[in-house]
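Section 4.2 – Deliverable D4.2 (structural model, holo form)

The reporting period included a commitment to supply a predicted holo structure for the target in complex with adenosine-5'-triphosphate. Inputs used:
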Amino acid sequence: MLDADLAHERNYVAGLYARLEELRTEKRQQLAQVRRAGAVGTMQNVSERDAFAALYEDRLAQLDAVDDRLVFGRLDLDSGEAQYIGRIGLTTDDLQRLMVDWRAPEAGHFYQATAFDRQGVRRRRHLILQGREVKAIEDDVLDADMLADDASLQGEGALLAALDSKRTGRMSDIVGTIQSEQDRIIRSSISGALVVQGGPGTGKTAVALHRAAYLLYTHRERLKTAGVLLVGPSSSFMKYIERVLPSLGETGVVMASVGRLMPGIKAVAEPEAVVAAIKGRLDMVKVVANAVANRQRIPAEDRVLDVDGRKLMLTRRQVSRARERARSTGKPHNEARLTFIKILLRELTEQMTDLVEAGSIGNNADRSYLAEDVRTARDVRIVLNLCWMPMTPEKLITELLSKPAVLAACTPSLSLRERSLLLRPAGAPWTEADVPLLDEAAELLGEMDPAAGRGLAQQEHDRARDLANAKQTLVNMGDMGVDVLISAEELADQNQERENRLTAAERATSDRTWAFGHIVVDEAQELSPMQWRLLVRRCPLKSFTIVGDIAQTSSVAGANSWQGALAPMFGDRWQLEELTVNYRTPSQIAEAAARMANAAGLVVSAPKAVREGRWAPVIDKVDHGQVVNRLVEVLPEELAALDGGLLAVIADGDLLPAATSALRAVYGRRIGNGAGSYEQDIVVISPREAKGLEFDGVVVLEPSVMLNREHGRVGDLYVAMTRPTQRLRLIAAEGIPAGIEG
Ligand SMILES: Nc1ncnc2c1ncn2[C@@H]1O[C@H](COP(=O)(O)OP(=O)(O)OP(=O)(O)O)[C@@H](O)[C@H]1O
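Output (structure tokens):
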């Protein structure tokens, strides 16, 4: 019976691939036709053809991206219908449905139906593909006399096969095996802030990514213009997850690590945790405001200014009054400066006029000439600039952090020690903790050239014009002999969609004021209050998916509770969901990590591990100074056990470079280090860099030092111990932290 079923499914799946191939061929032909038309004709013809070519290329790329494991499920419904569930929707030429997109409402039954709540499903079948070939099928029969435990795993075989597979250093999608508690979260409402709390390995990142794809599919209208932003903790993490959304057919999500949220700035990690904590506090809002106010100065005394040999007087009182009026406009610094300058120039011009007229009785001076003389006079320019200098955020924050007098003037709420911690040389690299300060400054300073704001209006205008051209494009393409298989409306929509998608992605890197339709934040527990403030500015609708584990916080600037982290920005208008099953770490390792955390006083939500592993944690106690030697000694054993899997050595402080160089001496280029090294099969990284990632095997060096070091957090060791999917080894000279050995 099963063999016959397998043969049937192979046949059906072959049909789906044949249809995919047909669609590809169609798109390739359309693309070739457009290209054959050549780059002749008017500028408009050429750019229209480019637009078409790009449209077809996009579609082709999407059809290519979903090739691997195109289909993964089948539902047999009470109605007698069989419904196949896959990465995209497919129909025949005459619109008979062949496969339903996993995000469509009816596909929800694939993830949600249980024996107790069948939702019209008689049988759920998992199709387990390798590439294009159906390797196995697995059935959940949901009819009443085969009642199963409601909480049981769905498609257990398919799930366990996915969990046991070797890690590649890049996350893959879980679309075929999403579990019902995850599916509920993925499909929950877009409005408001949704917090997804879950212990290590519960699929938070996977859920966040699938939710982004789901929201884009379900709310395409709303999100295609505004876009979705996905924020992660580090560039190595962004690299780790970069393939998931394309494999789900989505390329329109803007992905950025916290260090890349300010256009034009590539920030590094803040080296000192205490400094990050100070910069992350909300009292920095006042500090930055002070720094801006500090650039709106009143001279120490009245000034005499030389304009064409005449002496004009600029009094402190005049400057003070102009400053009050400029500030009362409520405009940002650079824009309010125009008011300030205008007032003072007018007053100085009046003085000048009086002086000139007094010197030439009976003649009226030409005010416009005099105004120009005053405006361009060197003395006037210098003093007005000194009083109210146009400012960039970079200059403002550089001065704030590098000039002791400025820092002291702007930070009355900080202690002397805190100030000395903040102080650094001008030209030091920007850090992740500086990004919200720069953003805050940009908000208060406004555009350097207020006219630049017109860029947005111009873009809107261009977009409307391009849309109007879409219909004309079709006519032109027809004239050129291109067989256009698309209606004018579709083309207009798709061009608009493409335009908007590109615009969203482009603007994310070039327009700080871009407002996203939704923001997904991963490892959200790490964010400081100032980082939250920046993110809320990027999505004024406050439509957020916030994913994290409060117990894994390692940043001192990060959060101890969701309530504490979210209250300043969201009040109590957020909803909490929890993930409770650990899909990554085998139970023996997960339990040791949870015992350690509890013994160290950390309250962890210790999710239940879905599987038992082959190995309990391996513990090596060695003499002082022998940790790295032992690492080199045991590595062959670890590599053999993993049989070609991915191994991480997680170490902190001096041990990190020591382990790297010792291993490089033996394994050469196989050793990766830090961000972007995940092509190698052995990486040496800090707990911070390991956050969010996973490996087949992990060796943790000196766990108790990781636990107790200055400014360290239990979270660091907890993160390190919960990274493996198979095997964990601890090498310690300083003792093994309580709880680990049971
Ligand atoms: N339903 C599922 N089917 C298959 N694999 C899954 C499923 N859910 C989670 N996983 C796998 O479990 C592992 C852990 O998932 P993920 O990294 O999303 O967890 P996390 O909660 O973000 O973990 P952490 O907080 O420790 O970084 C990944 O390999 C993911 O692919």
